Amino acid sequence: MSLISRRTLCVLVAASLATPVLAAAPASQGSLPEGIDLTLDLVGNVASNPVGGVEQGTEGSYWVMAQSKFDLDTLWGVHNTDVDAQWAWFAGRNLAREKIGNSISAQQTWRPVAGGRLTRLTVRHRFDNGLSITAGRAPVNSYFNNSALNCVFMSNAMCLTPYGAITDLGITAYPNSSWAGIVRYDVDDRWYAQAGAFDYNNDLNKAGKNGVDFSVGEGSGTLTAYEVGYQTSFANDPLPRTYRLGMYRNSDGGKSSYFDADGTSAALSGKPTAVQDGARVGWYAMADQTVWRGEGRRSLALFARAYVNTGNEAPVDSFMSAGFVKTGTFAGRDQDTLAMFVSNTHFSDEQIDFLRDRRTRNGGSGAPNADEIIAELSYGWAVHKGIRLMPNLQYVINPDPIYAPTRTTDIPDALIVGLRVDVHFAQLFGW
Predict the structure, then answer these.
(1) 290 φ, ψ to 5°?
(2) How far apart are CA 315 and CA 168, in angstroms?
(3) 3-state SS class at 393
(4) Are 186 and 130 in contact (CB under 8 A)?
């Protein structure tokens, strides 16, 4: 595959940024050329905690995502090759941090750095034997440990990536991206294996970078990911299923959750936590299994997720979740969903010891619970083609006090009332 010139990259980025303008154009002006697929999505989250947390309140956040996919085979005869350019804009505040005090966001649209960001710019070539190669700028979680069922929810415990790997491994997650190379082999229409290597450079995620810092060789490590899977769809299986097993490894060892450079408690000394040698490693498994199917896409799917840290000490030892998604609810509501999950995040001993010592330093005593349990019940209402409303209830047991640094007692369990709004303009306008 030949290298793409800087001019071509600029054209593709510009095309992605122009997606909102093209999306807003009336269909009567003519359809897009064959081989070009444009997407424009708006997702908004509003969350309120009438019960529990450090204090009560309401916060909102949203993102706008524009994506342009170019099939170079159709457009210019470049065999089995496509380009994917994606851009997003983020804004808003985080209820979990601002009001509850814990680290697991109830809003999957919130990101620490607001504003616009180039989230993906990749070239993929598919060989005729099932092998494909993807290269460019990409986040890890768009390709590994991914499932459409993850985002039938609003809590960040599930959407976009099941909790744990981002906190522990520092995996680049949407909207952050870095230089990446991914090799995938589809054995047939069910079995596959893939591996990827990603530049690990936390500076790329800072404000002002906007995803367009294409510097090379300035990262602190390399993050590799491996996954094998079995997946089917309604096209080839009456009860579709997906099973994935994978692992991440980051050659950047990360920082201790407890010790400072002198080997004492960082919470008591007030010094930064120490840099660790070695590598961060984590394993994950996920399963989606349709257990009932009615007319059309009416179905019931069960799912489970698991993550375990097996490398350097990190804040999360393990994460587990399970739940269901019922597609098709009441009569005439075949596109609606009723979904629920329950998760348990188990924090490491060192992370709990740090929080204990920080509490002691502020005049408190005791330690927070090591297990944070989150449940969400959501209803996805397909209001109109391209528009979905998702009212939801979330309950957080043992909220961690990571973002309540002066807290001297346990944070009360929190009830969260949420509303998620999804607008898919491509479906809404029929282009």
Answers:
(1) -75, 125
(2) 6
(3) strand
(4) yes
Residue type (1 letter), 325: V
Helix, strand or coil for residue 263?
coil
Say how far apart CA 34 and CA 133 lie, in whole Å. 23
3-state secondary structure of 64: strand
pTM of the model: 0.90
| pLDDT one digit per residue (tens) for the chain, 431 residues | 333 333 333 333 444 444 444 444 444 334 678 999 999 999 999 999 999 999 999 999 999 999 999 999 999 999 999 999 999 999 999 999 999 999 999 999 999 999 999 999 999 999 999 999 999 999 999 999 999 999 999 999 999 889 999 999 998 888 899 999 999 999 999 999 999 999 999 889 888 899 999 999 889 999 999 999 999 999 999 999 999 999 999 999 999 999 999 999 999 999 999 999 999 999 999 999 999 999 888 999 999 999 999 999 999 999 999 999 999 999 999 999 999 999 999 999 999 999 999 999 999 999 999 999 999 999 999 999 999 999 999 999 999 999 999 999 999 999 999 999 999 999 998 87
CA dihedral 227→106→397→321, nearest 10 degrees, is -20
- Give the Cα separation of 376 and 402 in Å (integer): 21
Query: Letter for the amino acid at 147?
Result: S
Q: β-pairing, 337-347 with 371-384? A: antiparallel
